[in-house]
Amino acid sequence: MSQPVDARSVAESSPPQPSRTEAVLPLVEERLEVSRQQQETGAVRVRIEVQETTETVPVELLSEQAGVRRVPVGREVPERQPPHQDGDEWVVPVYEEVPVVEMRLVLKEEIRLSRQAMRETREQQVRLRREVAVVERRQPDGSWQPEPESTAPGAGQETPPPGAA
Fold first, then answer.
1. Rounded to two decimals, what is the model's pTM?
2. Cα torsion at 142, 144, 149, 150 (round to 10°)?
3. Contact 91, 70 (CB under 8 A)
């Protein structure tokens, strides 16, 4: 960069020239300095609400009933036997003493117990809970305003409840 030239010093050091006036013109440059500042203009919050609905769903119930069948036997046995299992049935022996010239042990009957499984489907009222996200945006006055569902990501894509086809 060159030094500014003073008109008097030029006139003294150079040979006389025709009348020419020199002036020093200052050059000014403006510079712009840009900065940024972070400022909160709003906020968003998400709350989870639990919604409960009552729906009718099929429930399979299992119950068992005892079947009782009396089987007449009428034969003599040498000794008593405790109740025992014969296949899927429990056998409970019933004895009686019959007077004869001598006492003999006679198996009068057996009571046979078995299980029968029964399935039944009934409609049952059950309470289902589902969480729903509520998105709210803070307004300039400090209040919270719900965000419209159409602008929320995934809006309109409701997940069906379990068991619904």
1. 0.33
2. -20
3. no
d(CA 151, CA 137): 12
Task: Say how many domains are in the chain.
Answer: 1
How far, rounded to the nearest angstrom, does the alpha carbon of residue 121 sit from its chain's CA centroid? 28
In sequence order, the 6+-apart residues with CB closer than 8 A to the CB of 105 are 76, 77, 78, 79, 80, 95, 97
The alpha helices in the chain, defined as continuous H runs, are: 7-13
pLDDT per residue over 59-79, tens digit each? 999 998 889 999 999 899 999
Could you list the residue range(s) of the whole structural domain that residue 103 is in? Answer: 61-117
Q: What dihedral angle (degrees, nearest 10) is formed by the CA atoms of 135, 140, 142, 144?
A: -20
**31 phi/psi in degrees, rounded to 5:** -120, 140
